[in-house]
Amino acid sequence: MLQERSKLPRLWQSVAVGEGYGESWETNWRYVRRHKEDPEGRYGLDSASAVAFYLVHTGPSSFTTSFINGPVCARSRLSIEEIPRLLDLVLYDIPNHNPFRELIPMAHHQPMLLQTIIASSALHMSNACQCSPRSSSMLTTTASIQNHTSLPSSLSIGSCVTSRPETFHDALRAKQQALCLLKSALEDIASADVDVILAVMLLLIGFELIDSGRGSWTFHINGARIIIEKLIASTLATETAFSPLRSWLVSNCLVYDLLGSSFANSDLPHSGWPSTTTMSLLQDAEGNHCSSFPAALLPLIRAGAQLLKTNEVSSSPDTYLGLQDAFHLLHAAKSFDPAVWAVNLQPRSPANDPSHRIEIASAHRAAVCIYLSRIILALWPTTVLPHDLETLVAEIIAHLSNMHPGDALFTATAWPAFIAGLETVDLGNRAWVVRRFQELWELEPWGLTREALGALRTIWGARGNDQLQNQEENWNWIEKLQNIGTDWLIA
Q1: Cβ(126)–Cβ(211) under 8 Å?
Q2: 414-423 and 427-443 are packed helices; what angle lies between their axes, rounded to 10 degrees?
Q3: Who contacts 292 (Cβ-Cβ below 8 Å, separation ≥6)?
Q4: Of residues 127, 88, 55, the one with CA closest to residue 408
Q5: Average pLDDT for residues 241-265, to the nearest whole number?
Q6: Does residue 41 have a pLDDT over 80?
Q7: Which tops the pLDDT comparison, 49 or 307?
Q8: How confident is the model at residue 296 (pLDDT cuts 50, 70, 90)?
Q9: Which residues form a coiled coil (predicted)?
Q10: pLDDT of the residue at 278
Q11: Three-state SS annotation for the chain
Q12: Per mean pLDDT, which range of 130-139, 182-191, 222-231, 240-249 is the poorest?
């Protein structure tokens, strides 16, 4: 199906040997975190059993053979019955609504897929064994937010050292093996299983989110984008439909692709507005993707980011046409109706959840409006906005406050919460954002949560310093994030 493959091996060759990740796994030992002693003994397993435990989110695994040292035995034991829950990848893990379950039996015969699952699971376990953010050093108050000297401790998550680095080593080793196998598959992609390749790329994006959510995810997104473009073109030419699994894999990759453009400093693809086929795929993901991001809002983020990049390279942005385009995007975001969206989504949602969907969509709408407004102010600082940004922050917090850790859609609150944290100067709002990310970490110990708080700490500190030096005028967190020079993926 994919006969034209010249770009693929070259694109992934450097990734497979560790370049582009800063270090290959052999030189990443300094990142090893020592695990805190577990009072309940839940994590006192051998490394492989702990990996399996975190993959399923249930009691201790019966696996006794290391996934890393005994892959044949591991494959023979891995079965769908032993993987009863895959919650991190979807909002609802309900039979017939979680296509990721199909990956488990595929891993029996696909070492590349197996190693990717092992890598993500081991890294997840390594994160989860770190200190609880509810420790005394993590208590967050308005006073601690206000006191700049206490920011590092009050905003840390999982900063303690662990005593069991072997799971982190396993994660790096399995990731390296997966990348090498992926490189080989891409060199002969015409005979490879494209669904397996897409699944591996998608899970590697997840690995980067579990790790930090910055930097390396762009390699996987770029590789997946090339394959997806060819798949869509082939589908249109042959008038054939994607299988449910392929549709789910493609749609998830597309969501991360568009969402990643919001805080990416690297070059964005020069693509226009998504095609009808792409929008349909994005809508397919709305029902159960972990972000629950309304498909209608995602292209607005990409278009805003492209507008920012385009005008940055111009010595004098076109005041009229560019600003007109920006306000068109802003108007489209404000015109989005969360209630209508939530009702229309119900046939594709695994659960009857219109009220929670309205809350999530309303928060995302306000966050996209803030994001686009900051792009406008970055390019045209004297522009008078039609709304108050701090009011939009309050709107985000009001909607997200109705989502609690026990709710299925709670993990879909990270992106709007991050936007609210970037924008607000209110100390109470900042404290709320910190608590929300602490709760997200307790529920799902992904490194992107820790890194998001670190980015907020940096932004708040920079804004405080600028205020002290009377440089607050035209202050913009969009520009500050760009100056950091990191590609962030908050999902």
Answers
A1: no
A2: 150
A3: 91, 286, 357, 360, 361, 409, 412
A4: 88
A5: 91
A6: no
A7: 307
A8: very high
A9: none
A10: 92
A11: CCCCCCHHHHHHHHHHCCCCCCCCHHHCHHHCCCCCCCCCCCCCCCHHHHHHHHHHCCCCCCCCCCCCCCHHHHHHHCCHHHCCCCCCCECCCCCCCCHHHHHHHHCCCCHHHHHHHHHHHHHHHHHHCCCCCCCHHHCCCHHHHHCHHHHHHHCCCCCCCCCCCHHHHHHHHHHHHHHHHHHHHHHCHHHCCHHHHHHHHHHHHHHHHHHCCECCHHHHHHHHHHHHHHHHHHHHHHCCCCCHHHHHHHHHHHHHHHHHHHHCCCCCCCCCCCCHHHHHHHHHHHCCECCCCCCCCHHHHHHHHHHHHHHHCCCCCCHHHHHHHHHHHHHHHHHCCHHHHHHHHHHHCCCCCHHHHHHHHHHHHHHHHHHHHHHHHHHCCCCCCCCCHHHHHHHHHHHHCCCCCCCCCHHHHHHHHHHHHHHCCCHHHHHHHHHHHHHHHHHCCCHHHHHHHHHHHHHHHHHHHHHHCCCCCCCCHHHHHHHHCCCECCC
A12: 130-139
Question: Rounded mean pLDDT of the chain?
Answer: 76
Question: CA 322, CA 404: separation in Å to the nearest integer?
Answer: 40
Q: Span 47-51, mean pLDDT? A: 36
Among the residue ranges 82-91, 134-143, 358-367, the one predicted with the least confidence is 134-143
Cβ neighbours around 59 below 10 Å, total: 8
The per-residue pLDDT for 80 is 30
CB 47 within 8 A of CB 66: yes
What is the longest distance spanned by two Cα atoms in the chain?
66
d(CA 378, CA 84): 48
Given CA atoms 425, 428, 429, 431 in this order, what sign does their dihedral have?
Answer: positive
Q: What does the block give as tokens for 339?
A: 């209630």
Of the candidates 30, 31, 53, the residue with the CA atom closest to the CA atom of residue 40: 53
Length of the chain: 491
Whether 416 has a pLDDT exceeding 80, the answer reads yes
What is the CA 168 to chain-centroid distance, rounded? 20
Residue 446 CA: distances (Å) to CA of 157, 212, 261, 304, 338: 10, 7, 20, 27, 28
pLDDT at 161: 43
CB 118, CB 68: distance < 8 Å? yes
Q: pTM to 2 decimals?
A: 0.80
Query: What span, in angstroms and rounded, lies between the C-alpha atoms of 377 and 206?
Result: 33
pLDDT at 4: 37
Closest CA to 31 of 158, 204, 191: 158
Of 300, 256, 160, 287, give the one whose Cα is nearest residue 487.
256
- In this structure, of 81-85, 178-182, 431-435, the range with the lowest mean pLDDT score is 81-85
- Paired residues of 488 in beta bridges: 214
Contact 88, 124 (CB under 8 A): yes
Is the model's pLDDT at 26 over the cut of 70?
no
Question: What is the rounded distance in angstroms from the CA atom of residue 198 to the CA atom of residue 187?
Answer: 15
